[in-house]
Write a structure and sequence with these properties.
Blueprint (H helix, E strand, L loop, with lengths): L45 H11 L51 H8 L7 H12 L2
Helix pairs in contact: 2-3
């Protein structure tokens, strides 16, 4: 045997000893699929059939992480050079706040009117009448 040959033993630099080389999926993440797992306790023959099904169509190991668009710095040039910076505001050039598709603001009486028929007790009707009498 050669003197420099590695014959085993603890090597701190070996991949299996590196804490940075641990898979979050328990070792199933290296190939992108989950490994087949034998399920004990199944009726005779079903364990082997289940193993064969898992090997024939492996399940995905890691769910892909959705990527977010890159962050645009404040100092970046505009992506819409022909659009005024006041677009979406109710002043200045450009379209007003109607282009923002915001929910319409409703008065308290409009909100109560939309639910008055859903209240079997009639309390909402009384509240609605009170609110209307106050002009709210």
């Amino acid at each position: 045997m050669a003197g420099n040959e590695n014959s085993g033993g603890m090597r701190p630099t070996a991949p299996q000893n590196s804490p940075m080389n641990v898979s979050a999926t328990g070792g199933n993440g290296q190939s992108g699929t989950q490994g087949a797992t034998y399920i004990p306790g199944l009726p005779y023959g079903e364990g082997q059939a289940t193993m064969q099904q898992q090997q024939a169509a492996p399940m995905q190991g890691q769910t892909p992480t959705p990527s977010m668009p890159d962050i645009t710095p404040l100092t970046a040039p505009t992506a819409r050079p022909s659009e005024p910076v006041t677009t979406g505001m109710d002043f200045g050039p450009g379209a007003g706040s109607e282009v923002l598709n915001l929910p319409q603001q409703r008065s308290l009486s409009q909100i109560l009117a939309s639910i008055v028929d859903l209240d079997p007790t009639g309390d909402t009707r009384d509240l609605y009448d009170f609110v209307v009498s106050r002009g709210l």
